[in-house]
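INFO  loader      accepted 1 record
INFO  loader      residues=161
INFO  predictor   begin
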Amino acid sequence: MDSAQQDNLRRQLARLRLAESDMKQAAAGARKLVGTMGRTMNDDAARALQTGVAVCYARAFTRSKGYPMLEKNKWAPSDADQRAVHFDLLRLRNVLFAHTDETDMRRVVDAGEILGLGWNMLVEEYRPIPVEQWERVARLAAAQVLRMKQAGDEVAARLQE
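INFO  predictor   done
INFO  writer      dumping tokens
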């Protein structure tokens, strides 16, 4: 194997190890949300953790400088439920968590107009993601940890040849 091939494999291995770590973080954050949402964690803290989970999960499938991006379709699970969660989470990362897009889940409304009190009482309207969805995210991310570890181990073995 020439040095260019070795460098390519090292970059692939680095990407997979970082992705494995990101999935571990996403799984841990999702489990924390499941265990505390609506009980011991206030809404603002829960929303910040939700953002972290979505960003950690999606990071492996997002363009970056230095490491190759993992193909979101290739890494989509074959299980129909996990596949749906995978694509939903990537979509929500883009429109809800990482950017300020107006969606039916988060927007600004005029509370004064709604209540008949006048104008310019703009407030955030937010529709929370149910805890059951975070349970599904935790399972998905944990499964991705195993897949990415296995793929990384295979690349590492190729580097040892």
